[in-house]
Each structure stands twice: as structure tokens, then as C-alpha cells.
Amino acid sequence: MQGESTHVTVVFAGQSESWARWIEHQIKTAGRATALVRWDPLRRPPTPEALTDLLSSPGRLLLVIDDWYERLGKARFDAWATALQGALPHYKDRLAAVSVTEQPLPDVVVPLAPVALRGLPPEVARSHVLECAGIGAPERLVSLDRGPRFPDYKPAVTNAPRANRSFLGRSELLQQMYDTFHTAGDGITAVVLHGPGGIGKTQLAQEYVDRFSGDYDIVWWTSATSRLTAREKFAALAPRLGLTAHGDLGADVRAVRRELASTLRPWLLVLDAADAPAKLADLVPGPDSAHRGHVLITSLDTEWARHAMPIAVPPFDRAESVAFAVRRTERLDERDADRLAAAVQDLPLLLDQTTAWLDLNPMVDVRSCIRDIERGEGDIGVESPDYQQPYRAVWAKLLNTLREDSEPAWQLLNLLACFSPEAVPVRLLQTTRPGELPPLLAELVADPSDWNAALRKLSEITSMRVEYEEGPRTIQVVRTLRMHRLFHRYVRSVQDLEEAARNAEVARRVLVWADPRDTASPGNWSRYADLIPHLEPSHALQSRDEDVRGLVLNCIEYLRTRGEHTDGWRLSRQAVDAWRDMYGPTDRSLLVAVHQLANNLRSLGRHLEAEAVGRDVHDLLADTPHSVRPIELIRAKDGLGGTLMALARFDEARALFEEAATRATVELGGENVPRTLSIRSNLAVAIGLQGDYVQSHALHRKIYETRLRLFGDKNALTLNSALRTAWMLRLLGKYREALDIQGHNSRLHRQVLDRQHSQTLEAEHNYALCARREGDLMFARTLMRAIRKKVVGRRGEIHPESLLVSCDYAMLLREVGDTQQALELSETTADRYADLYGEGHPYAIGSRDNMATVLRQRGDVQAACRISGEAARQMALAVGAAHPWAAGCAKNAMTALAATGQHEAAVETGRVALDSVSASLGESHVLTISLRTGLAGSLRETGAEEEAAALHQQAADRLAQLFGPDHEQARYILEQRLPYWDFEPQPI
Q1: What angle do CA 972, 976, 979 make, to 5 degrees?
Q2: Residue ranges of the alpha helices (H) in 604-673?
Q3: Quick one: angle between helices 650-667 and 630-646, nearest 10?
Q4: CA–CA separation, 301 vs 191, rounded Å?
Q5: Would you call 31 helix, strand, or coil by DSSP?
Q6: For 174-190, how does the pLDDT look when each residue is reduced to its tens digit (9 = 90+)?
Q7: Nearest-CA neighbor of 436 among 501, 422, 428?
């Protein structure tokens, strides 16, 4: 008996799992043996024998009372109540109970005097549990921070939807999900629930979250029907995790993913109604994390089985169907419920909708209704393989009832079908201008009680999921309805064409009214993410309303602002295709969409496609200049010039920018209006890419002074011009002046723009390069490493911004002696530039030449000589022999030849390069001086001592004038060490 008295058995229904496990933990930490026994009142027969088996465990019995009784039909509840009344006298000395429900308790459990735990502090709840378990207060209590979280406390970070109080059954599936997650060990485990529509995947996931959220510190529910919505909702987790938002959606997604992969806090991510894995795989942290994370996916797409452990969700079994139906409506007894379940093939969605319909139609004979469904009878229906016969029969009855008995609800349903089913924006209907709605719906929206009644009726009869938000005076109001996709398609398929067109027009007006018309403000981003899924079902792209077209263009611009260029390309492509057929090639909105299409293609690295798009519209407008506004041709020239810069066709780009700037000066009101200044800034960049650093610097400085006068020193455009001016000063070899300007400019960037802003990071990048050239290598390395981490974290490894900073960081590592990491990074960067732009692009060539410089420093002079020679040849072909990049590659080729003892060849290469660079950059540029000293060294090796001495003296004189004798660059060159040149790509 001693063994029995120390043992406690905790008996609970499945939905009380989190409470049962918390109670079990408290008993165990108090030193008692315990066991959990799950009781499923649907599975067990409601007999005294079944209850005797349940209560036959040794020791003390602690019964956890929740609201399971509300989920049973009256007949089954009464049977269990009778069994419990008969068993209580036999177990009353060993039996105690706790209550974890806020609902009134049934009379049958009152004799147990259950102790209520809900709403108590955890310390008080624990003392009650121990008392009920027959355990005296321990001398030393274990901290409640250890073990399962107190079930009344939600996870620290959660956005999980409300629990479904109507959920019933599925115990084995829930246990299978739990076991799959918790037997996988550490790391990230993904489980996918798959099955046909209407089978209950979302409800099952929601119940899992409700029951087991106590296992997690972070629970994040993401509606994943569309890629954009899923990414925006996933990124919304960033501030909840204490992460800084970047503004770029991809960067926020990556930041959240990294945090989940590294955090010690257990977490659960739910991707509900997930689209194809290829569109969403980047939301799932990799499986190699050492910490525990769980991903629960619901999807129709069977491809998810390749990425997660699949669990098939079947229809209800018959016992679950019957229990669900008799609880859902009192009009069914178990026999009729069994027939109904068979008629709808035990599909949860149809059971829910049919029983709701029966409740709303009390005069309809139940058995006649079931016969109609069995025969597939209904006045509304479509013969389509998309809808099985039970769906058509049930849905026909639902729609007939709404149409005949509730005209406002019927109109509302037809309007809601013109929005995306995953998040029907009922709040937008409430806040839209009344004149945008049909009179009956405007009247409905104006009366909160009628409005809420209509929503409730729709929710009940169609099984729409309701999501709330906090409204005025903290009142909970309906924010969205989630309509099942199959039902949504069915409603649309049976709509009258004229009625559907009218409803689609109303839906578009609602969306236009909701457009914030400001894509740059972060506060509007979630609104645009919510609007975009509704463009297709409302036929926005086919609309001739200019306001609707403006909404589409704003959505495309939002996608560009957020860095979602794939979705931006797709939407802009759809707009271009639709509007070209409707309006012709010179339509104003179409031209804006074409411009956005080219921008998105360029951002995706699809530069040849971007050129083709830009070239077509440019040539069209150039041939018909009087058919469009002047700004259209100006924009076309400016956009095509940007694409050509990325393709390294700098001469063509410069010509286009010059033409655009000239036209803008005439047509837009002068050379100093903001739009013209922007084009002239692009022109200055193109001139710098051509290698004319003097002219580029002069133009950048002039633009900077103008913007400073117009906008002040803390405007983003002014800051950008100051950054470009300092960049050119550094390339001109004026390191001290560049460092001073860039240091001040970087401080202003940090004050005015976000520290994670692309322009701020670019300013810091140039600051690090200036510091390096001034000899402060450790500071430059620390700063550059931090910048690279931020840029790569924000943009990913292969983005042009990441490659630019990686290229420069590799050569900084070489200079501080970390040649192994420098070699790896320079080689990777060269390969990625080649993949992005092609092997013949100057950025790929220059990066490869950097790799050769590292190889030479590591002693592999033969490989360095081979790569440098090829790079010099390719760079001359790519940008011309007179370009500073070609001279720099030739300088490295000369040095590599000298390192392998080929001094005659080095002299020949050096002479040609010196002539070119002297003509392009002048005699006093540091590249010219360095080339002169390198050539002097090779001349000395060939016996030309007198010429070598003269060249060396000229270099010394120039260096003294440029830097002074003690500058790091001057010492390096004058010590006659082999010179080098680092290729530094410029921002485009």
C-alpha cells in the first residue's frame, strides 16, 4: 500500500494536454511518481466498465475537468454522466479533481468539488494541485520558471489564432504530430499535414497550437497561400524577436530565419495553406540547427513531402462525424447523424456547413435534407470535376437559403467572393466611403448590429473563419473572414455574369479607397501586402478605371521598395500585357509599368531582358516623340541607360544620359530641378565608370552644391551626392580630402537614415576604403567586416551590393596578411560576378585579377602571372586600353611578369600601360606614379640603370607633392617593393 499511496495518476481529456503536463511536472518535482492517462470520451463506450478501467490505476487519482462535456451530444453526455455517478462512491477516497475551464460545471462533477485553477497565479495553482494530489507543502519548492510553462500564460511571442471551441476528435492525429516533433531530437523538424480541401488541415494545426503551445516560447502563425503574404507575415516576427527592421523584405526574412536557427528558445512556426515549396522554402530554417524548432505546414501540394515529414489527414471517422454532428445541432440524433455523415463522406467542412444549415432552417425535414444530399439534388449547381457530388448538393442548399431568406447576407457573400478567399477584408468594407457600396450593403455596414449579424450568419452557415482585431474602446471587431478556397471557387462559378461584374467593380472601388498612396512609408507596407492578393480576383488588371490602374502601379512600386523583385516583375509583366492590348503602346500608365518591369528585371540580374524591354519602349517613343509627354522619353532614356551601365556598356549609357539630361533641362524647367539633377547624377556615375574621374568628380560636386542649396545637408539626395563626390576624390588619389568628407558624410547618414539603409552602408563602405588608403588598416578592416556582415545579411551572398563589398574586403584582408581568407573570398566573388554578369564583364575580370594578386603574395607566381596576363587582355577588350582599369590590370601583369623573372616582357607591358594611364589620369595620379616605380624596377633588372633612376626620381618627386614623404603609400612605393593594383568595383 505504501507504493500506491505515493503514486498519482492524472486523468485528462485530450484538449487539456498542456494543463495535464504542467500538473504532472508539479507532482514529480514534489517527489511523487506520476502517470498521465488520456481519456477520449468519443472513443470509449460510455459504460461503467469503461470508467472502471480508466480509474483502475494505483494510488491517488486526479481528474482534470475541462469543457469536454460541451463537445458531446446530449445522449453520449448523459451516458457518461450516469457511468460517473455510479463509479464515484467506489473511488471517492482516492479521487480528487481540478477544473481548468471557465464554463459552468455540470451537476455530475459537483460532488468532486473540483478546485478551479484558471485565473490563479501559478504559485497558488501549484499549491492547490499538490493539495488535491495528497502531497504536503515541500520544504523546498522548485522554481516555476523550469519545466512546462503555466498554461494560463501564453508564449512570450505569439500571434496564434483563437482556439476553435468546436474542435472535436482527431486525438490519434494530434498525438502522431506531437510524437513526430518530439522524437526527432534537436534541430529543426518540419511536419506537413496534407489532404484534400475541406478535410480539416487548418483546424487540426490550430488545435495542435492550442494544446501544445506550452512547449514553446515562440509560436508564429503565417498564412502562406501566396508567397508575398507569407513573407510579409513571416517578416513581421522580426520586431517581436528584437530584430531591427531593414526595410528590405528579403533582409527581414533572412534575419528572422537566422534568429530562429540560432535561438535557444523553443519555437513553432505554422505555414497554413502553404503554396508550392519552391515559393516558400526560404521561410523554413535549415535542418542543421543545434537548437529545437518545429515547422508545421498545411498544404494541398504533395511536393511538401520532399521537404517535411508528411502526415495524411483523412476524413473524420464515423464516430467523430456522428459526435460532431449531434453536438453541432440538436435536430440530429445519432442515427440521422450517421446517415448525414455517410452522405457527405465524413468531410468536416460539409458536416459543419450542413448542420449549420439545418439549424437555420428548422422547418425543413432532416431526413428529406439528407435524401437530397444523397441524391445530389439542388437548384444551384455546376457539373464540374472540381466539385464532388456532396459538395455541389450541400453548397446548393446553402446558397439557396441565403438568396431566399437573407438578401443582405446573399449580396455580401457575392461581393466577398470578389476578394481573395484567404483574407476577405471585411474591415475595408466598413471603412470605405459609403457611396462606393451598393445601397443595401451601405445600409448594412452603417448599422453595426445588422453588420455583425450578417457576418455571424455567413460565418455560421459557410464555415468562414473569423479573425478579430481590437477596435475603438478596446472592443473586438471582425478584421477578416477566411473563406475555404473550394467554396470560394464554387460561389464564383455559379454567379450571374452581370452580377459578378458589378460586384467586382465594387470590390475594386473598395481596394482603391484603401490604397494609402504612399509606398515609401513603412507603416503602409502591411496594407499593400494585404491588398495585392485581391487584385486578381477583383479583375483589377482588366479595369479601365484610372484609379484602379494607379493602385496596381502603387502595388508594383511597393514590391520594388520592399525588394520583392520577383513578385514585382510578375505583376508588372501582367500589367504590361493587359494594358498594351487595351490601350496601345504609348498609354501613360502602360509606360510607367514598362519602366517598372525593366527595373525589376535589372534588379533580378536579368539585364539582357531588361535591355530588350527598355530598348523597345525607347525606340518606339523616339520614333513618335509628339504622341506622348516629354517625360516619357526622358524616363525611357534614363532607364535604358541604367541597364546599359549594369551591362558595362558605359559609352552607350553616357550618351543616353546626356540626351536625357539635355531634354530634361529644356522640358522640365532647367538643369537644377530635382528630376534633371537625378539624371545628371546618373550621367556623372556613367562618366566615372568610363574612367574619367576628373569630370565625374566635377559633376558630382556641382550636383552636391545644388542639392545642398535646394534641400539642405540632411536630405538623402544631398547625402548621396556628397558620397559620390568623396568616392571620386578617393579614385583621384586625394585620400585625405576624401576621408574628411566621407567621415562627415557617414555621420550624417547615420543620423538621417537608418543605420541599415543601403545608402548608409555604402557610405560606411567608402569610409572604410578611404581609411585604408590613409593607412588605418585595422580600423578599415573592422568597419569593412561589419559592413559586409550587414549587407550580406540584408541582401544575400550574390546581390551586387554584397559582391561589391566582398571584392573590396578580400583585398583588405590581403593587405593585413590574411591571404588564405582573401584568396577564398576573392575567388568566390569572381565566380559570382561571372555568374551574374558573364565572364567578359569588367567586374568579373577585375575580381579575377584581384585573385591573381593574392596568389602572387602567397608565392604562386606562375598562376598569378597566367591569370593577370589574361585579365589585362580581357579588361582592355572590355573597357578599352586607355581606361584606368585596363592600366591597373596591365600594372599587375607587369608585376607578375617581373616576379617570374620575365623582365623584358614586364618592361614592354609597363611602357604601354604608363603611356595610357598618363594620358587618362595625368602624371600626378597615384596609379601613374606606382606604374612608374614598377617599370623602373624592371628596367633596373634589364640593365637600364639610368632610365630606371630617372623614373624613380620622378616618382619620388610626385609622391612628395601628393602625400608627403611619410605617407604609407609613399613609403611602400619608394621602398621599391613590387607594386600592386586592387580592382574596386563602383556602385551602379
Answers
A1: 65
A2: 607-623, 630-646, 650-667
A3: 160
A4: 13
A5: coil
A6: 888 988 888 877 778 88
A7: 428
What count of residues does the chain have?
988
Instruction: Read off the DSSP letter of residue 640.
Output: H
Continuous segment of H or E residues that includes residue 575: helix 565-583
Which residue(s) pair with 192 in the sheet?
297, 310
Distance CA 392, CA 385 (A): 11
pLDDT tens figures, 333-390 = 888 888 888 888 888 888 888 888 888 778 878 888 888 777 765 543 334 444 466 7
Inter-residue contact 43 to 171 (CB < 8 Å): yes
Q: How far apart are CA 714 and CA 727, in angstroms?
A: 19
967 phi/psi in degrees, rounded to 5: -70, 145
Q: How far is CA 764 from CA 267, 437, 573, 726, 812, in A?
A: 36, 52, 36, 12, 15
Going by their DSSP bridges, the two strands 267-272 and 293-299 should be labelled as parallel
For 860, the enclosing helix (H) or strand (E) is: none
**Cell 537625378, located at residue:** 678
For residue 169, give the nearest of 16, 298, 345, 15 by alpha carbon: 15
The yes-or-no verdict on residue 968 having pLDDT over 60 is yes
Q: Whose CA is closest to 525, among 219, 724, 238, 727?
A: 238
Listed residue (66, 74, 45, 33) closest to 53, CA to CA: 45
Helix (H) or strand (E) holding 442: helix 439-446
CA distances from 892 to 237, 761, 775, 867, 897 (A): 49, 30, 21, 10, 9
Residue with cell 640603370: 945
Question: What is the residue-wise DSSP string for 946-973?
Answer: HHHHHHHHHHHHHHHHHT-TTSHHHHHH
The answer to whether 689 touches 645, Cβ cutoff 8 Å, is yes
DSSP state of 812: H
Q: How far apart are the first and last CA of the chain?
A: 83
Residue 417 in 3-state DSSP?
Answer: coil
- Backbone φ and ψ of 60, nearest 5°: -85, 145
Query: What DSSP state is assigned to residue 447?
Result: S
Residue type, 144: L
Task: Give CA–CA dist 232/929, Å, rounded.
Answer: 53
pLDDT in tens, 97-113: 888 887 777 777 777 78
Give the pairing of strands 476-482 and 465-470: antiparallel
Among 96, 125, 119, smallest CA distance to 22 is for: 125
Sequence-distant (6+) residues with CB within 8 A of 750 are 760
Helix (H, G, I), strand (E, B) or coil at 7: strand
The three grid cell numbers given for residue 280, joined into one nine-digit string? 516558400
Q: In this predicted model, which residue has the larger pLDDT, 241 or 388?
A: 241
Please state at what angle helix 565-583 crosses helix 546-561, rounded to 10 degrees: 160
Contacts of 831 (CB under 8 A, 6+ apart): none
The predicted structure's pLDDT at residue 193: 93
Q: Residue 283 — pLDDT band, cuts 50, 70, 90? A: confident
Q: If we measure between CA atoms, which residue out of 183, 203, 184 comes closest to residue 193? A: 203
Distance CA 126, CA 144 (A): 9
- Cell numbers given for 94: 482516492
**Rounded-to-integer distance, Cα 387 and Cα 399, Å:** 15
